[in-house]
Specification:
The protein has 345 residues and is α/β, with parallel strands linked by helices. The chain contains 12 helices and 14 strands. The protein has a 9-stranded mixed β-sheet. A 3-stranded antiparallel β-sheet has the order 12-13-14, with no helix packed on it. The chain binds pyridoxal-5'-phosphate (PLP).
Amino acid sequence: MKKWLIRNVENVEKFFPLTEEEKKAFKEVISVYPFLSTSYYLSLAAESPAIRKMLLPDLREIDESIQSKGEDDPLCEERDKRTLHLTHRYPDRVLIVTTNFCPVLCRFCMRKRNWKRPTFFIEDPEIEKAVDYIKKNEKIRDVLISGGDPLFLPVEKLKKLLFKLKEINHVEVVRIGTRAPVILPQRLFDEELLETLEKAEKVWINTHFNHPDEITEISKEAVRKLLKAGIPVNNQTILLKDVNDSVETLERLFRGLQKIKVRPYYLFHCDPVKGVMHFSTPISKGLEIVENLFKRISPLAIPYYAVDGPGGKGKVQMLPNRYRKEGNYYIFRNFRGEIFKMPDR
Ligand SMILES: *Cc1c(COP(=O)(O)O)cnc(C)c1O
């Protein structure tokens, strides 16, 4: 297997020493939830306690008293599939899960259920089926390509999918969800990949920075290459307990992203996924953080805080409650906490 992928504890210890607790977690957890990282991301972990928490196995992942309330697939992505890889929930957009391969297995992964399956990359006949489904449904204007990490599909496959989508007139946007700029920015230095994304024309990248320690010179360089190719870059963060659940950390993250021209799009409340429950915070914590962000920075650097409803109910975007109606008036609360009203005329 590839040299830049690190799978076992001996190789991790070449980057930094592990505590007894971390060694124990490696022993007991990886038969259930394996470990995988790029050497690049491990080198970041050596310097960052927050990144270590996102990357290293944790005994709480297999602690039933913590995980029993979680489910393998709380969002019912499997139930709502229309082809083997395509989920259609909202009227104008679909999700295609193209692979379960990622070069880093993030401990908070919402698709941890797919870790147990042998590695798959969408087969060509399944690309056809997904594309046919989209062709027949003219309301679909936005196609999300997710995984795993789609930028690690064999590039011929990615090309095939993207160029077929390019030909469908009613598809206006193709969003690729990838952590490559975070966990292996070097991937974006591949000319063939970059050219593919550029020539596919409709591509937007949704990347996934969770912590300011992940914004490095080289990740900035990767983003710059995407922007230069005319590809908008947005970011989805997950609110993770003891990793980024403070207004100071998220302010630094979102300002850092804006500085490298990545628009913070979503701050997701952590989904109730089995094996991930120890990262969960109260919803009120997220709302309080967002409330404080609005006091401090421009909305251009503030993502939507959102829950994804269990049972496939879909996403709900939340804002702090800053207005209400009273009779013929709206009562507002501004960034300083001052109250004012305006008539509804
Ligand atoms: C999140 C998601 C989308 C995209 O939702 P947006 O709010 O437009 O980002 C589409 N389909 C499914 C199944 C999803 O989970």
